[in-house]
Specification:
The chain is of the alpha+beta class. 29% of the residues lie in helices and 26% in strands. The strands form eight sheets. A seven-stranded antiparallel sheet has the order 11-23-24-25-31-27-28. It has a five-stranded antiparallel sheet with strand order 1-4-9-6-7, with no helix packed on it. The termini are far apart.
């Protein structure tokens, strides 16, 4: 089934022939000892193979009909070392990666191949000391933004470089014709369509993007300049959240941004749906608006979705335990799950992750209403958020630590203990008030995630850095970023997915956790404001990110510990920069010695020293805490 008015994808400047080898040898050149097999495809029915022995190649040459820069990716398995995946432009080397000695498929990418109109790009698989299988070649437009990280910690700089390149490799070249409805049960899919501007957000062996994954990848995508892709994907979910779906957005779309992914959608009464998703998509609409300044996000299409998600959706899904909290059915994901935790087997009617996401959606709906000039509506949403939080603390939740309430069952019983998402979303969305209960629960989350409660799937763990950054637990946030990065080459528990690092959410979230997390960078492009707060833990002396895209320009930002910050304005507007520093500091100096008036703010229970500085286009400002 399709949404009624999905976006149109224009033809691209590059087009690969037969990228999945489903048409046999068509479009490719083949040496002796190479060919097409059906024994080990990544998706579909066929794959290319190269027998052992140096000098064998499989290649394809495509002509560029316009100027651009591209990533070239492929899924490759090998029985031994010394193979290569390489790209040549007009016969000259343009990039090469060694084929990793893995008997299962993993993704290989040559990044940022620059082409001029008329250039001829050759994509080549070269044999090594053992057999090679290759499949699912993909072209991605190089991301519009290319932020760069330097740091006193070389691992951090390496992590950011890996993450942004990996994330970019998941972006679809708009206009590329590809299969629809590919999944593990239907590896060849059903039909084809031109893909819209979009990126992979979900399993790499399915031909679509998911509401939950998209929500967690929006910020990383904005940092790579992927505003067009975010608009396409967020809009597609918005237009599907109609009365016939009881205001749920569909769970997943094919990459044409029109066709619902068949494995998750059976009918308007039977499709995968989870209560936190519509609320998270409201939150991400506001986040994309702040990063881009694009009026689309406060236009009628997105506002109608946000309004329905925070009014009609709540009313329609608050019947079993009427209290203003959106509910699931307790009957599984095709009937409506209260939680993102799909594996517990618990029949939940209300869950902490949905409650927290609803609270956050009210707050950002207030900001969006204000941006539309609807101040009375903004005030109503702010009051709803406050009321919901009061009810949470005085009627919904009890106890603390392992005994704290994190859900209610279909029978009405409160549940405590470890609930993965319905545990960590509550502090992540700052639903919990600062204080002993919040602190004890964060300790419990860290303890469980390190021990018996550690999620098996890496994409669940990608939420932990966000959870700890939101609560100024910088050491723990960085620990979990390192965990995700250090385990990127582990095998994912879903075999068809390949490596942990081949799950798209991993790379996108490491990008956002570096910029929004470690750097505490929060843009507000519509109001020409930016806020920073260093979250560098001990052991990272300094971190600099250049080329952070905001609106139509960019910023450079450097933090030295948590006491000194420097911002360069690369936009065409004068921005007001609020530099925040943890603690109560009596003296703050800017630009090499000039004293500046500062204010104290209590933010989520902690005192911060804040100073506002006007930074004109092209200017650099420095703010430093003068320690006693």
């Amino acid at each position: 089934m399709s949404s009624p008015d999905g976006p149109y994808a224009d033809p691209s400047f590059l087009a690969l022939s037969n990228p999945g080898f489903e048409q046999g040898k068509e479009g490719w050149t083949w040496d002796d000892g190479t060919g097409v097999a059906v024994a080990n495809p990544h998706t579909g029915r066929c794959n290319a193979y190269l027998e052992a022995g140096r000098g064998r190649q499989v290649g394809q040459t495509v002509a560029a009909t316009g100027k651009g820069s591209y990533d070239v990716s492929a899924w490759i398995a090998a029985g031994g070392p010394s193979g290569a995946f390489l790209v040549r432009v007009n016969g000259a080397p343009a990039g090469e990666v060694a084929v990793v000695n893995r008997s299962f498929y993993s993704r290989h990418t040559v990044s940022r191949v620059a082409l001029e109109k008329g250039d001829r790009m050759e994509i080549v698989f070269a044999s090594g000391d053992a057999w090679i299988n290759a499949d699912d070649v993909m072209l991605s437009p190089a991301a519009p933004a290319d932020p760069r990280a330097t740091s006193s910690d070389p691992v951090l700089a390496e992590m950011f470089e890996w993450a942004k390149r990996k994330a970019n490799s998941w972006v679809h070249l708009a206009g590329t014709v590809g299969p629809l409805n590919v999944d593990e049960r239907n590896p060849s899919g059903n039909g084809t369509a031109a893909y819209a501007p979009s990126y992979w957000a979900g399993y790499a062996h399915r031909s679509g993007y998911y509401a939950r994954d998209t929500a967690h990848q929006v910020a990383g995508a904005q940092i790579l300049g992927l505003n067009k892709e975010n608009k396409t994907m967020l809009r597609s979910f918005a237009v599907s959240a109609v009365a016939a779906h009881v205001y749920y957005p569909v769970w997943s779309y094919n990459f044409d941004a029109r066709t619902y992914l068949r494995i998750d959608y059976r009918s308007p009464d039977s499709f995968v749906r989870e209560v936190p998703a519509p609320f998270e998509l409201v939150e991400k609409t506001e986040q994309a608006y702040r990063w881009s300044g694009d009026a689309f996000y406060v236009g009628d299409t997105m506002w109608d979705f946000c309004r329905h998600a925070t009014t009609e959706f709540v009313k329609e899904h608050d019947r079993l335990k009427p209290n203003g909290v959106a509910e699931g059915t307790g009957q599984g994901i095709f009937e409506g799950s209260a939680s993102y935790n799909e594996t517990s087997g618990e029949q939940l009617v209300e869950a902490g992750d949905a409650f927290a996401s609803q609270y956050r959606a009210y707050l950002v709906a207030s900001a969006l209403a204000s941006a539309r000039g609807e101040e009375q509506q903004a005030a109503r949403y702010a009051e709803r958020a406050a009321e919901l939080r009061r009810y949470f603390h005085h009627g919904w939740v009890a106890n603390q630590g392992a005994a704290m309430t994190r859900a209610y069952s279909l029978s009405g019983a409160p549940l405590s203990g470890w609930g993965t998402e319905n545990s960590w979303f509550m502090p992540m969305k700052r639903l919990l008030l600062p204080g002993p209960r919040n602190d004890a629960y964060l300790d419990y989350i860290d303890e469980m995630a390190e021990g018996t409660g550690k999620p098996e799937n890496i994409e669940a763990i990608t939420y932990l850095p966000d959870t700890f950054f939101a609560n100024d637990r910088d050491r723990q946030a960085w620990k979990w970023m390192r965990y995700v990065y250090d385990h990127r080459n582990d095998r994912h528990p879903v075999a068809a997915q390949g490596l942990n690092g081949d799950y798209p959410e991993v790379a996108f979230t490491l990008v956002s956790q570096t910029v929004e997390g470690l750097m505490g960078f929060r843009p507000d492009a519509p109001r020409a404001r930016v806020t920073t707060r260093s979250h560098l833990p001990r052991g990272i002396d300094w971190l600099r990110i250049d080329g952070i895209p905001v609106g139509s320009g960019s910023f450079d930002l450097r933090h030295d510990g948590t006491h000194r910050s420097q911002l360069t304005n690369g936009t065409s507007k004068t921005y007001v920069w609020q530099a925040r520093f943890p603690g109560d500091h009596h003296t703050v100096r800017t630009d090499g010695g000039r004293p500046y008036e500062c204010r104290r703010k209590t933010l989520h229970g902690r005192v911060h020293t804040c100073v506002d500085v006007r930074v004109p286009p092209g200017a650099t400002a420095t703010v430093e805490v003068v320690r006693a």
